[in-house]
């Protein structure tokens, strides 16, 4: 069975640009969460989506937004990129929004120059 | 605000030895405590998890010990192998609160190196 997939693997952008990251959850999983992992730190929660609705939001500016599609895949969008947005962006899927076990994808490495 | 504090930041252990990683939390509403293993260039992988009504849980060479009164929990890796060399993260989440989802709050990570 395929695990959580994310694309692209790596991305290089310049300050002020916009980026879209994509995630496909494990088959049968309906909830997707996004995390930001800065080098040398633990992941930080950004969003959770379930059934196309936002179910949780972390302490991130409005430049960060996300959405979930009818097939449960998800996009994370970041506008007006800053150098500090350079990080590994992780997607995690779970069966339902209240499910405790979350399974992470390999991440997208974003570098902002 | 860091709600889950993890120590040590790094540790070196000989093959066959025991690796011990400790975490402390502040929010007594946390009721699910997983540990994740992360290799370079990969996403975190769920290793083992515990709930506060259990004091210890063992899966293979990995054991979680939980002390509810002290608000601390730890991961023990028995018979450590070079393949266990990775970064380990403790995490915590709160039971279902509609506004909060099931977000995980992570510790800062411990880099474990197992020497052959």
The CATH class assignment of chain B is Mainly Beta
Taken in chain order, the helices and strands of chain B follow as EEEEEEEEEEE
Termini Cα gap of chain A: 37 Å
Total individual domains of chain A:
1
Give the number of helices of chain A: 0
Strand content bin of chain B: over 45%
Structural notes for this entry:
The complex is a heterodimer of chains A (113) and B (116). Chain A is an all-beta fold and 113 residues long. Chain A is built from no helices and eleven strands. Chain A is 0% helix and 50% strand. Chain A has strands at 5-7, 10-13, 19-24, 31-37, 44-50, 53-57, 64-68, 74-78, 87-94, 103-104, 108-112. In chain A, the strands form two sheets. In chain A, strands 2, 4, 5, 6, 9, 10 and 11 form a seven-stranded mixed sheet that branches. Chain A has a four-stranded antiparallel sheet with strand order 1-3-8-7, with no helix packed on it. Chain B is mainly β and 116 residues long. Chain B has a single domain, classed as Immunoglobulin-like. Helices cover 0% and strands 55% of the residues of chain B. In chain B, the strands form two sheets. In chain B, strands 2, 4, 5, 9, 10 and 11 form a six-stranded mixed sheet that branches. Chain B has a five-stranded antiparallel sheet with strand order 1-3-8-7-6, with no helix packed on it. In chain B, strand 4 and strand 5 form a beta hairpin. Chain B starts with a strand and ends with a strand. Chains A and B meet through strand 4, strand 5, strand 9 and strand 10 of A and strand 4, strand 5, strand 9 and strand 10 of B.
